[in-house]
Structure formats: structure tokens, C-alpha cells
Amino acid sequence: MDRDRLRDELLALSEKLTGEELDYAIDYLEVEGKRIEERSQEDSVVDFVDDYCEFGPERVYLLMAIARAKDNPFSSSEEVVFREVIRNKREIQEKYDKLRSTVNGRTESEKSYNFRLHLSVNARNTTKAYFNFRSRMNGWVEDRLHGDENYEKFKNLDRRWLSELSRPSSKDETNFLVDLDDDDELGIDEVRDLLTGYTVVQVKKRTPNGFHLVTNSFDYSNLPTGLDIKTDALLFLEHISGGENYGN
Fold first, then answer.
1. If you average pLDDT over residues 87-101, what whole number do you get?
2. Of the candidates 83, 100, 1, which has an alpha carbon nearest to the alpha carbon of residue 43?
3. CA distance 49 to 89
């Protein structure tokens, strides 16, 4: 909020506020205004996820916070990833708050990391993931019997289970994601018009560098122009913990 505008509003409300009292009131309103703005942004993300997700007995979604090298002062090998499994609509707010709390605590030399929050475009099927994961673990046990000292794999099974859920083999549906950059040859409206003849565009979401479009699956081999189409990907939600917020 602009301090001059706040000062004028406060003076109009009460001529009794002067000096230190007026400065204190302005500082308070600035902090409160920022808090309300952040809360509004958080609510819009939670509402979007609530509308997007379709849960079922075996269907879950992955909510992920990723600190990428291109957004932070470290190499690609040091990228930080946090995952949360959302099992039903009641958990959306809880898991969102948990991830935000986690990433807000990540600092490097007193400088906050920049994270991007993503949602799995496709729901994950827990039964598919379970059988794939069990087969993978059986392979590790067999390797142990042949002398492979792979003890560490069994010490972080929770993380490996989340990785299994992230694999394309665990998806429960076939939504596609079209990734558009602002400097691409075709603009967002042109791409949407183009896709209309091939599929249904379900969602349009702003990203830091362009847009994400979620579509039904379709045969894109005959498209007249090349597009960056992913058959199982992460949908951008917002940029958090530093920098401008692009979630709207």
C-alpha cells in the first residue's frame, strides 16, 4: 500500500492522529494490508486445487514445491524438492499450508529460496504405484542376495514411495499439458484456437514465463505447428518465498 494514500485516509478519518501515532498506524496498516493480500492469494490457490482435483478410492494428487537452479543461487544438482500427497479435498488446505511453512523456512545465508508450487496434472493411482513399488523393492532384495550393499535404499522408503507416485506409470488419467512461453511464435489465444479443432482445453494457468494449458489427451502428430506438449507433467500454481507472485 502507498504510504501517502494511507496517510490521507487516516487524516480524513481522524485529525487526532499525529506524529508518532500516525506513523505507527500507517506501519500497522501496511503490514495488515500485506497479510490480507497474501491470504487472498493463498485462498485462490486452494480454491483452484479444490476445483481441479477429482478424488476417488485410489486417486491422489501430488503437491510439489521446487526450488530450481534458475531461480536460486545454486547448481542444478542442489535443487530442492518437497512433495505432499493430497488424498481428499479435506486435506488440500492442510497440505498447502504445510508446504508453505516448509519452504518459508528454507534459507541460504539469510536469503530465502525461491520456490515454485506445482500440482500433478494427472491424478495418481495408488494401486498401480504400489505394485510397481513392490516389484522395485523385490529387485533391491534380489540385488542384496547377489552381494549389492544397497542398504541406503531401505532407509528412505517414504521418499522413494513419493518418487514412485510421480512416475508416469502411476498416473490414473491422461491429461496433457501444453507449455507456452511469452516469446513463442504463437500467442495464447492463437494456441487455444488451434487446439479447439483437436481437443478440449480444460485449464489455462499463468506461469512466470507464459502459460500452462491442460487439455484432454489427443493425437498431436498432425498439428500444423510444433508445441511443447507433455503427456504427464506438473501444473504451475504459484511462485512463493521471494520474488513476484505469479499465481493469478
1. 95
2. 100
3. 9
